[in-house]
Write a sequence for this structure.
């Protein structure tokens, strides 16, 4: 499921992981650690500056079974949204 930019902009995350300033594999490692603090069915937002995260995070979600909802770019960084499914 991919949300629209308007939908993503208005989402309220249950947990926010700030991985800005780190490069691969930093954002993925931060997401792996952060997902445990997100309730099942809840929303985690990952903040990242590494453009590789736009490819790596959806792939990680597919591999482990979470829903990647999409991303938006704001003020020099990315906001990526994941729904925890298990």
């Amino acid at each position: 499921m991919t949300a629209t930019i308007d939908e993503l902009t208005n989402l309220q995350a249950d947990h926010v992981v700030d991985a800005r300033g780190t490069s691969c594999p930093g954002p993925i490692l931060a997401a792996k650690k952060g997902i445990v603090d997100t309730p099942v069915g809840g929303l985690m937002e990952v903040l990242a500056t590494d453009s590789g995260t736009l490819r790596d995070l959806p792939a990680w979600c597919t591999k482990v079974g979470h829903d990647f909802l999409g991303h938006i770019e704001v003020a020099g960084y990315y906001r990526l949204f994941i729904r925890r499914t298990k």
